[in-house]
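2024-03-11 09:14:02 INFO worker-7 job=invfold-0412 stage=load source=structure_tokens
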């Protein structure tokens, strides 16, 4: 295994306390948020009854291909910050890696809070199912602002407070939350099959076969639901035996979650019509009531009390996902700041809890602000920005690293190289070009990249860093 040097800086450092079970737990908590419960009917609507199953399969295949890239890099460079550490090492800490790692942290300042906010907004939408008044606007002139936005921001602040403790206490909280996550998933799966058995047995309803474009859209939604299998890489500096734990945690979490998503999709298909699905004439597609779908299926199988229970468990699941998201991402600005490549204020580790508390609070506050956007806005900005400014750089980087540093010790080497990064890139391009309003999303990503690059160049010139190293030498 590659020797791990302490990150430069004063004060305490992170300790390696996370084992394989906890690593899989943190990944799955991030993967299974409110997303699958809201997007499940949208995947079916986009791809059709039969192709919806393949959307989840293709999403899992892309997740495995991309996960192998994360596994090789995470095992070779098990440090706090994940992608930040990878990009800095691959492209050179005194070269372009200094720029790309700064650019990654810059975009993460947007994409991480957006991801956290999406979970909180989804959580508040289920709260509004119990308390419809949450969807009302508190200020008559601001129709886009609802009480649910304040509920989402409050959830964000609550998660931040719960994470403000040592990693051992956080792990115990995570296991408690995971019980609710599994209960929600298995509740939907069991209820769907029970309802099918009571109404003549499981079958795929007659309906549209689906189209290639619909499959692409369904795969995009499914892939978004798989994201999180790499969460353990952000906690790399706190993982025990990372050369073995990180690759196993990534692959196991994808396998477990893919099986659960496929079962859930199969379970709800026979109940679509009873749960509110209907065909729209002329287009061969159908719409489904989003929030009510899974709760109505459970209610049909076991009664009203069960529907309310499953809605409560989905709120629990969304909260647990946000918990895991903020936990992992809070380590990235910390790692960059410890390297002197971001705001030094964020480099602090709490003297008693041993956590990067300033980075944690900063991301929590920004995420709370993003809770006042719509769910569509945050997901759109998140998906495009992350693929362009993070995943593609890692796919190219892992191949560049193989070519330039063949002697580098790699505790885990991805099988079938270079197919995994090529398949992952092809899958992401497939989704991007079939995405509605793709140009607008790419423009936003380009704007984030340009602004981050300008800030980096100003900072690099002042500090004499790449590409202005000659200025520091007096040339």
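2024-03-11 09:14:09 INFO worker-7 stage=emit residues=475
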């Amino acid at each position: 295994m590659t020797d791990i040097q302490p990150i430069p800086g004063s004060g305490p450092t992170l300790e390696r306390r996370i084992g394989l079970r906890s690593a899989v737990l943190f990944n799955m908590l991030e993967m299974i948020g409110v997303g699958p419960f809201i997007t499940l009917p949208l995947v079916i609507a986009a791809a059709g009854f039969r192709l919806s199953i393949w959307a989840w399969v293709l999403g899992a295949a892309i997740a495995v291909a991309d996960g192998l890239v994360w596994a090789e890099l995470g095992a070779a460079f098990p440090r706090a910050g994940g992608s930040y550490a990878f990009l800095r090492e691959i492209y050179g800490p005194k070269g372009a890696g200094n720029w790309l790692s700064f650019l990654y942290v810059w975009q993460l300042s947007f994409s991480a809070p957006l991801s956290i906010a999406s979970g909180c907004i989804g959580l508040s939408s289920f709260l509004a199912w119990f308390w419809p008044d949450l969807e009302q606007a508190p200020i008559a002139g601001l129709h886009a602002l609802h009480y649910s936005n304040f509920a989402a921001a409050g959830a964000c602040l609550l998660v931040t407070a719960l994470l403000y403790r040592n990693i051992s206490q956080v792990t115990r909280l995570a296991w408690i939350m995971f019980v609710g996550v599994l209960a929600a998933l298995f509740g939907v799966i069991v209820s769907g099959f029970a309802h099918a058995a009571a109404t003549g047995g499981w079958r795929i309803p007659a309906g549209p076969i689906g189209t290639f474009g619909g499959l692409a859209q369904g795969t995009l939604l499914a892939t978004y639901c798989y994201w999180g299998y790499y969460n353990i890489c952000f906690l790399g500096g706190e993982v025990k035996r990372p050369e073995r734990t990180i690759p196993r945690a990534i692959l196991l979490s994808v396998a477990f979650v893919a099986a659960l998503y496929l079962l859930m999709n199969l379970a709800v298909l026979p109940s679509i019509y009873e749960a509110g699905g209907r065909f729209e004439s002329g287009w061969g597609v159908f719409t489904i009531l989003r929030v009510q779908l899974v709760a109505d299926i459970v209610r049909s199988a076991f009664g009203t009390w069960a529907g309310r229970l499953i809605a409560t468990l989905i709120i629990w699941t969304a909260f647990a996902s946000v918990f895991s998201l903020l936990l992992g991402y809070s380590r990235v600005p910390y790692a960059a700041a410890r390297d002197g490549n971001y705001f030094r204020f964020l480099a602090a580790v709490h003297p008693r809890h041993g956590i990067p508390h300033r980075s944690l609070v900063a991301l929590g506050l920004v995420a709370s602000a993003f809770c006042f956007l719509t769910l569509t806005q945050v997901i759109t900005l998140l998906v495009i920005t992350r693929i362009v400014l993070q995943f593609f750089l890692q796919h190219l980087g892992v191949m560049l690293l193989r070519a330039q540093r063949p002697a580098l010790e790699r505790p885990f080497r991805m099988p079938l190289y270079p197919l995994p990064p090529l398949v992952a890139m092809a899958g992401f391009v497939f989704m991007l070009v079939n995405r509605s309003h793709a140009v607008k999303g790419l423009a936003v990503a380009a704007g984030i990249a340009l602004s981050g690059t300008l800030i980096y160049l100003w900072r690099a010139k002042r500090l004499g860093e790449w590409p202005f190293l000659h200025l520091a030498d007096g040339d």
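2024-03-11 09:14:09 INFO worker-7 stage=report msg="DSSP finds 16 helices and two strands in the chain."
2024-03-11 09:14:10 INFO worker-7 job finished
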